[in-house]
């Protein structure tokens, strides 16, 4: 094993592929910062290396590592179904509809961190499967002699309860197609490993302050005049919206894209400057699939994959010429004209949608990448391309993306999803911090005003405060019912919800300087600004599976409620004294307690010591 920095080791097994994350994603060298971190499990990586086994087969390669019965495993990117992966299988495949707990996600990452004192990153774009203690090898149960315990009711639960693993477990990584892979080992406790992984990825991103202020995406069908009218209303009604997002209607053809303004926006330059005079930044929706009417189509034809998506080209984002064409076009047409960022949609594959929604895994790209590799790489390559386009013009962006993956911590993009389960959105927020990702549990449509408040509270305490009104012409605080919103009918209690929502916007504004501080730390030390409790309290078993509370910066602990949970919740505070952020009461940590929480309030606690 080769030591590449304090607590980071590299192990090359067999002959790795050319297209792997470390070769395709540019990263700043942060070894100096890594060397400054604590390392609470020095020497462990080399010990693990001695126990590591691997073999090749017609299928690809398999790596086996020991796993203790009590070991907890976290990571694997943006996961929606809980935080602890011990006893589970994680299939690292990009999927825009992660409807089951398989590991598939908008942003799966082949990195995990173990409570056993190490983290592991498998440097591959292949759809790898990690089995964490779900397999035992032949003969390891020999000699077992337990008998079924009599149970009253003959149920699946009763039978499965006998199956709790007590035998020696193994962690297996199954990587198809490859003749080798490089593994990176990170030493330390959970926090130290995550910090090392983030610094190895180039450090955490530090968004510009404006990116942390509130965002609002306008109705997809709105034109220039309606957009300006709404922007003016936000100002008149005291909503401190900073970034306005324009949805697909701004393009002359979208799905696939022309990247040209449509008739709804006859005077784009005037529009941009009028919005800027009102203090707004603009963000444009797009995806990477290039429609034949796009100016860059002909030039990209030879630099694209061999299948189309929605009649559009799938540009080879590994190809230098493609990157130049895209950067140049975006630079001249949008960045130079004052557009602050983009929403990079639909780059997250899809297995369930009808039509040619995405390209097949067997696609071939001129660079030599295949469809499987491109699916895993597309999100990060697209983000880095846009990031570079801004950097080359001496400016910066803070944008959105629907797919990400390995080594993404320094990319100024926030993930979002079309799934809309509030509980799962909170779990994804808690998980994002294990894998160098930013996530927005965006507010879109809501069941009613109280559901709106609950969702807005979560988004206030997230990486990006965004309301995505792409399906509604009027703000949700006026009307949450889509049909009525489309007809312009306000809710009877619109004034009440408008006032409560405004307060949450103001709350977010007051948090921006504190958030900037947390992000600065993220950049310099790799410590994520939003973290699962187990990262800060690794010895407290109450935190091991907690997926609905999180640390927000160094001082605040947040416990969002969903509308379905109503107005009461059982809360756990780790040992120590905590002060209610709003009620200023002192809470003694170390136990669970039930708290009554009206819809207008979110439980947030400030660490006292
Ligand atoms: C979806 C995206 C939505 C919205 C919509 C517009 O893919 O997730 O937020 O932008 O496209 O067509």
Q: Brief overview, please?
A:
By secondary structure, the chain is an alpha+beta fold. Helices cover 28% and strands 21% of the residues. A seven-stranded parallel beta sheet has the order 17-16-15-14-13-12-18. Strands 1-2-11-8-7-5 form a six-stranded antiparallel beta sheet. A six-stranded antiparallel beta sheet has the order 19-20-21-26-23-24.
Structural overview:
The chain has 609 residues and is of the alpha+beta class. The chain folds into 3 domains: 2-137 and 153-200, Sandwich (Immunoglobulin-like), CATH 2.60.40.1760; 210-525, Alpha-Beta Barrel (TIM Barrel); 530-607, Golgi alpha-mannosidase II (Immunoglobulin-like, Sandwich), CATH 2.60.40. 28% of the residues lie in helices and 21% in strands. The chain contains 16 helices and 26 strands. The chain has a 7-stranded parallel sheet. A 6-stranded antiparallel sheet has the order 1-2-11-8-7-5. A 6-stranded antiparallel sheet has the order 19-20-21-26-23-24. Strand 7 (108-114) and strand 8 (118-122) form a beta hairpin. Helix 10 packs across helix 11 (371-391). The longest helix has 32 residues, at 494-525. The protein is globular. The relative contact order is 0.13. The model has no long low-confidence stretch (mean pLDDT 95). Bound molecules: beta-D-galactopyranose. Beta-D-galactopyranose binds at residues 220, 247-248, 285, 345-346, 418, 468, 470.
Topology (elements, then pairings):
Blueprint: E1 2-5, E2 8-14, H1 21-24, H2 31-36, H3 44-51, E3 53-57, E4 60-67, E5 73-77, E6 89-91, E7 108-114, E8 118-122, E9 129-135, H4 156-161, E10 169-176, E11 180-187, H5 190-200, H6 209-212, E12 215-217, H7 224-236, E13 243-246, H8 268-277, E14 281-286, H9 297-301, H10 320-335, E15 339-344, H11 371-391, E16 399-401, E17 413-415, H12 422-432, H13 449-460, E18 466-468, H14 482-486, H15 494-525, E19 530-532, H16 533-536, E20 550-552, E21 556-558, E22 568-573, E23 577-580, E24 586-588, E25 591-596, E26 604-607
Parallel strand pairs: 12-13, 12-18, 13-14, 14-15, 15-16, 16-17
Antiparallel strand pairs: 1-2, 2-11, 3-4, 4-10, 5-7, 6-9, 7-8, 8-11, 9-10, 19-20, 20-21, 21-26, 22-25, 23-24, 23-26
């Amino acid at each position: 094993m080769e030591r590449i920095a304090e607590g980071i080791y590299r192990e090359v097994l067999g002959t790795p592929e050319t297209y792997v994350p470390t070769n395709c994603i540019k990263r700043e060298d942060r070894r100096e910062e890594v060397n400054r971190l604590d390392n609470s499990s020095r020497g462990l990586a080399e010990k693990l290396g001695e126990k590591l086994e691997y073999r090749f087969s017609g299928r690809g390669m398999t790596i086996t590592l020991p796993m203790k019965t009590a070991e907890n495993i976290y990571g694997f990117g943006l996961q929606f179904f809980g935080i602890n992966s011990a006893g589970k299988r994680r299939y690292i495949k990009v999927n825009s509809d992660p409807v089951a707990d398989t590991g598939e996600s908008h942003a799966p990452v082949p990195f995990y961190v173990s409570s056993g004192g190490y983290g592991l990153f498998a440097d591959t774009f292949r759809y790898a499967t990690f089995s964490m203690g779900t397999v035992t090898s032949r003969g390891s149960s020999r000699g077992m002699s337990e008998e079924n315990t009599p149970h009253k009711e003959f149920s699946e639960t009763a039978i499965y309860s006998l199956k709790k693993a007590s035998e020696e477990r193994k962690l297996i990584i199954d990587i198809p197609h490859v003749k080798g892979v490089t593994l990176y080992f990170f030493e330390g406790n959970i926090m130290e490993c995550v910090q090392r992984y983030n610094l190895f990825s180039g450090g955490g991103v530090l968004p510009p302050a404006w990116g942390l202020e509130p965002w609002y995406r306008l109705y997809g069908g709105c034109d220039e005049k309606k957009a300006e009218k709404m922007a003016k209303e936000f100002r008149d009604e005291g909503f401190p919206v900073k970034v306005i997002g324009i949805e697909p209607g701004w393009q002359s053809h979208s799905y696939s894209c022309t990247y040209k303004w449509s008739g709804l926006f006859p005077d784009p330059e005037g529009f941009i400057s009028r919005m800027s005079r009102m203090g707004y930044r603009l963000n444009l929706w797009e995806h990477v699939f290039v429609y034949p009417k796009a100016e860059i189509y002909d030039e990209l034809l030879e630099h694209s994959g061999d299948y189309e998506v929605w009649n559009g080209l799938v540009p080879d984002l590994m190809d230098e010429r493609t990157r130049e064409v895209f950067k140049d076009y975006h630079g001249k047409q949008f960045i130079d004209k004052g557009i602050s960022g983009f929403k990079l949609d639909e780059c997250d594959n899809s297995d369930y949608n009808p039509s040619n929604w995405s390209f097949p895994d067997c696609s071939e790209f001129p660079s030599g990448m295949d469809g499987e590799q491109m699916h895993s790489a597309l999100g990060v390559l697209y983000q880095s391309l846009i990031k570079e386009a801004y950097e080359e013009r001496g400016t910066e962006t803070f944008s959105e993306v629907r797919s990400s993956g390995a080594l993404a911590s320094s990319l100024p993009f926030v993930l979002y999803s079309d799934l809309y389960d509030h509980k799962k959105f909170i779990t994804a927020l808690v998980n994002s911090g294990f894998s160098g990702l930013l996530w927005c549990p965006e507010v879109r449509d809501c069941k009613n005003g109280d559901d709106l408040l609950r969702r807005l509270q979560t988004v206030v305490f997230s990486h990006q405060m965004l309301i995505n009104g792409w399906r509604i012409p009027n703000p949700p605080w006026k009307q949450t019912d889509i049909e009525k919103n489309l007809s312009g009918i306000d809710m009877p209690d619109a004034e009440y919800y408008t006032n409560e929502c405004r307060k949450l916007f103001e709350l977010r504004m007051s948090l921006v300087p504190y958030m900037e501080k947390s992000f600065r730390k993220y950049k310099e030390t790799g410590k994520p600004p939003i973290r699962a409790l187990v990262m800060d309290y690794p010895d407290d078993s109450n935190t091991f599976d907690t997926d609905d509370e999180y640390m927000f910066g160094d001082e605040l602990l947040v416990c969002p409620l969903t509308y379905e949970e109503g107005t009461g919740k059982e809360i756990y505070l780790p040992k120590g004294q905590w002060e209610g952020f709003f009620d200023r009461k002192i809470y003694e940590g170390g136990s669970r307690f039930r708290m009554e929480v009206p819809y207008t309030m979110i439980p947030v606690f400030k660490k006292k010591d």
